[in-house]
Amino acid sequence: MGWFVSLLVLSLLIFFHELGHFLAAKAMGVYVKVFSIGFGKKIVSFHWKNTEWKIAMIPLGGYVQMKGQEDMDPTAVSQDDDSYNTKTPYQRIFILLAGPFANFLIAFVLFWMIGLGGPPVLSPVVGEVVKESPAEKAGLQKDDIVTSVNGVEIKTWEEMAKGISQSQGAISFVIERKGYLQNITITPQMREARNDFNESIQKRMIGIGAAGVSTPLEVTDSLSYAWDKTYWASTIIFGGVQRLISGAVPAKELGGVISIVKITADASAQGWMAVFFFAALISVNLGVLNLLPIPALDGGHIMFNLYELLFRRPPSEEALMKFTIAGWIFLFGLMGLGLFNDINRLVG
């Protein structure tokens, strides 16, 4: 059942990505020939609104085939009014951006639905106070509740930690202790910490730990929760891609569709919130990866259109063909490496 849920989630995310392209293309007056979920031989298809809608055997993505645009033959053009080729570079970029935008939007909606479900968040209640730390020297005590940092109201432990790390100089805290409010000024120290990529960093800290008190997220805060989580997921994935390219993250850490399916299947056993959370992460991942400037991806097509805007002429047919072939080789190489790593993890 878990594997079925994971494949359904992946297919739906691909569908919404391609739906973004489809709707943008129709808005720009471009004829869409095929809307496909998956590649290869079709399993089922039907015609609606002059478009062939189909599901294919290989669930590794999808595509919207527009008149005048052929990924396997980038030189194939059409000069009809309803062709992709006859649209301005700005219109084409709008169509190309619509797919990744749909993925970010779906992620936001999923995080918002999680927020509406009232997920528990860590409250800013002080637990351990490290000896000789700035917090202890300033008089902060166990069970103190931080209500504001530098005049900004605090509701969660995450907000408090962010306020401390982004501040400069001494910080003004308002705390609640046994029902009474007190003002405390603390000057943080730079200490070693770990970021989301488990890298060692220097961070402003005051020397306290959380008491572990959780409270449900209020419904009115669900939109800000969704925005923060979507932004966080985007930075995590952008940062991961950057570190993979630079070599900071080894290639053996790259995962493929099997990893995606397995993670989502495992999440399904934890309940709908876990499924929504990982679906949102995968959706952001699809959006980010499709924005990479790799020919055959949306980012590669955007790069060609930016070239046309900058130099007032499209790239030559020879350049388009060479870059597109190189892009497909690179993509198949990445998919092959991800599949190889997935199999190694399964049999390891």
Please tell me about this protein's structure.
The chain has helices at residues 2-27, 89-116, 134-138, 157-165, 222-246, 257-268, 272-291, 298-311, 317-347; strands at residues 32-48, 51-66, 120-122, 126-129, 145-149, 152-153, 171-177, 180-186, 189-194, 200-205, 208-210, 214-216. It is α+β, with helices and mostly antiparallel strands. It has two domains: 2-117 and 230-347, no CATH class; 120-216, Roll (Pdz3 Domain). It has a four-stranded antiparallel β-sheet with strand order 6-5-7-8. A two-stranded antiparallel sheet has the order 1-2. A two-stranded antiparallel sheet has the order 3-12. The longest helix is centred in the C-terminal third of the chain and has 31 residues, at 317-347. It starts with a helix and ends with a helix. The relative contact order is 0.13. The model has no long low-confidence stretch (mean pLDDT 83).
Structural class of the helix and strand makeup?
Answer: alpha+beta
> Which sequence of SSEs, written as H and E, runs from N to C?
HEEHEEHEEHEEEEEEHHHHH
Radius of gyration: 25 Å
The percentage helix is 40-55%
The first-to-last residue Cα distance is 24 Å
Looking at the structure, what is the overall shape?
elongated
Q: How confident is the prediction overall: mean pLDDT?
A: 83
The main pleated sheet reads as: 4 strands, antiparallel
Count of individual beta strands: 12
Outline the low-pLDDT stretches. none
Count of folded domains: 2
What fraction of the residues are assigned to beta strands by DSSP? 15-25%
Query: Spatial order of the strands in the main sheet?
Result: 6-5-7-8
Total DSSP helices: 9
